[in-house]
Amino acid sequence: MSRIGRKSIAVPAGVKVQVNASTRVVDLQGPKGKLAFTHRPEVKVSYSDADKAITCDMDPALVEVGNNNAYWGTTRSVINGMVEGVLKGYEKKLEIVGVGWGARLQGKKLVLALGFANPIELNVPAGVNVNINGTIVEVSGPDKQSVGAFASQVRSQRKPEPYNGKGVKYVDEV
User: Fold this and answer.
1) Considering only Cβ atoms within 10 Å of each terminal Cβ, which end of the chain, N or C, has fewer?
2) DSSP for residue 29
3) Count of Cβ atoms closer than 10 Å to residue 134 Cβ
């Protein structure tokens, strides 16, 4: 039995939930945005309006077969992250360290000047917001996966050097 999968997900006020059992889609809408997730067919997701909770269940006969136990816990964790994302949102901060290095926004593109001959242009994905405060690039949005993936893509353009510390690093990174 999945310890994580058995826990119910409390839905706070301000978050609207729709669970469609036939298409296996969970739709969440909150103040920070709207997200949808299609879960695995082995897992049954239901929403109780009286309890204001989402529960993930699995047939006991399927629990011990293959990776079904992992699917159960993963489905619950992803939906829990979605609830937190549409309510509070996620944010990653990156710092650009280097003389003359910086970033700017041109429409829906992030343009990085990282000491190369040509600037690097990155398309900002839909649902992700980018703000620039001096040498700090703030990536935010309701989807945890897309925020983390875009922040990782920005960091990978020039990883910090171990000796000088020059490069693009997370603010809390040492």
Assistant:
1) C
2) E
3) 9
